[in-house]
Amino acid sequence: MPSVDDLSAASLHVLCVEDNPVNLQLVRELIALRPAVRLRTAEDGLSGVAAAQAEPPELVLLDIQLPDIDGLEVMRRLRSAPGTAACRIVALSADAMPERIRAALSAGFDDYWTKPIQFDVFLGHLDGMISAHQAGRPLR
After folding, report:
1. Phi, psi torsion values for 90, nearest 5 degrees
2. Using CB atoms within 10 A as the burial measure, which of 22, 52, 55, 72 is most buried?
């Protein structure tokens, strides 16, 4: 039987930085459907950066509009720190304008998922990352 450490190591570690309680609860409920994912959360940009640096996740789901610093600045800080530079960082935003999506991807985000969250799309992306992680492949 695997130990708790083995299960934790096999889990995909996800950090969700989201200030809207409803959106955060929705992410929690969707991720709860995937036992291979270990979720941590932060409600603003600075606590998200601190959480990621304290325990680097494999995946960061990052709201763009945060109350203290915006998601672009959070992403820049994570990309510039050695421990978090390789994290897969996905923008999670209600702004679905094509130019905003292009700008975020050009700035360094790995992907851009829109809100309201489409359950099947969200879980499909997550399932692909879980499979890659469990196979030892990069999430990128």
Report:
1. -115, 125
2. 52
Whether residue 123 has pLDDT greater than 90: yes
Tokens of residue 87, six digits: 């994290």
Domain spans in the chain, listed from the N-terminal domain onward: 4-134
- Using an 8 Å Cβ cutoff, are 95 and 74 in contact? no
Model confidence pTM above 0.70: yes
Q: Is 140 or 81 the better-scoring residue by pLDDT?
A: 81
Q: For residue 5, is pLDDT > 60?
A: no
Fold of the domain built from segment(s) 4-134: Rossmann fold (3.40.50)
The number of residues in the chain equals 140
Average pLDDT, the chain: 92
Q: Which residue has the tokens 């390789």?
A: 86
C-alpha 40: how far from its chain's center?
10
Secondary-structure breakdown of the chain: helix, strand, coil percentages, each rounded to the nearest 5: 45, 20, 35
Helix and strand counts by DSSP (H, E) for the chain: 6, 5
Looking only at the bridges linking them, the beta strands covering 88-93 and 59-63 are: parallel
